[in-house]
User: What shape does this take?
Amino acid sequence: MVKTIYLVYTASRPVKYPALLREEMAKTNIPPDDDFEIRCRKLGHQIRFSYCCRENEGLPCFKTLDCWYPFFSVEEFLRQQLSPEEFAEVFEKPQKPKVLSLVELIEQAQKRTSK
Assistant: This one.
């Protein structure tokens, strides 16, 4: 059975998990099991932490720290798992603006279709 967890963004949205569970998990640097899911702000559907850790061509998604910090010490865990260079590449370099990323994707698609 998969435990579905929804992060609360507005007061009108119901909480689907007990606060005690979240508080207990936040005290540890052990990631949740794969039966624990949250809603991905980037993709818009339920995901597991294991997916977030490899979403970026084998590296974690750049939003992983933001999404998972309420549930466990995600930064501490990832600093142990990644080299300092990998951690810096994912979390410390400035992200491209979304419009620029979209333009690059469109250009790549146009190049593929013109060949």
